[in-house]
Amino acid sequence: MAVDGSLRAIDGTLTVPGLDGGALACTYALQKDRGFAHRSPVWVTLAEGERVRPLAVDDGSGRVRLDEDAVTVRRARLARRSYSIDLPEGEPVPDAVASFLAASGVDSPDRPGVDHRLRLAPLAPDNTVTAVGEYDRVTKAGDAFWGLSGDDVLLFPGERDAVRDRLLRRYKWLTGGGAVMTLVGVGYAAMLFVP
């Protein structure tokens, strides 16, 4: 089942550093500069993941609850919504960043010996998304509902038509690239057997 609409909070929001208001889902990456002095930074990811609060998608006719334990946020469109918080060398990590990392299960660099940054891509209430998953009964300790669940609930930022267009373009590129590679492989194999 696919549903598109606005995100709605079920049980509070995440506190995300640098964001006014809360978020319902946020992908993050803690990165360290491995570059050399006087050159542009070379960022290496130390830890990455996503945090999700209980949420629903409101399509205008009602809400469809999403199983937050099964949600995977597709990041392709999040690049436009992402931002970084710089953690300069030798300076203490801001409390908001340290508490976000601790809640994510990531050790915060106390006073980094090299430059670090925290990349964040939050999805806030009222953001438009498309959710794809299996409609089923979800039973958890203290909570039961009908909603999107299964092995993987995909959450794409944007409306359904825009998501379909992006996926179709990707499919065409992959199909075209696969066809070209097949022709090259067949041509190479033919050269091996033709005298």
What does this entry look like structurally?
The chain crosses the membrane at residues 173-194. The chain has helices at 95-103, 160-193, and strands spanning 2-9, 25-33, 43-52, 55-58, 63-66, 71-73, 83-87, 116-123, 128-140, 143-157. The chain has 195 residues and is α+β, with helices and mostly antiparallel strands. The protein folds into two domains: 2-158, no CATH class; 160-195. The chain has a five-stranded mixed barrel with strand order 1-4-5-10-9. A four-stranded antiparallel sheet has the order 3-2-8-7, with no helix packed on it. Strand 9 and strand 10 (143-157) form a beta hairpin. It is flat. The mean pLDDT is 83.
Number of helices, where a helix is a run of at least 4 consecutive DSSP H or I residues: 2
The CA-CA distance between the termini, in Å, is 55 Å
In the sheet with the most strands, the strands line up as: 1-4-5-10-9
Largest sheet: 5 strands, mixed, barrel
Mean pLDDT level: 83
Runs with pLDDT <50, length 5+? none
Strand content: 35-45%
- The total strand number stands at 10
Q: How many separate domains?
A: 2
| Helix and strand sequence | EEEEEEEHEEEH
As a whole number of angstroms, the C-alpha radius of gyration is 21 Å
Q: Which structural class do the helices and strands define?
A: alpha+beta
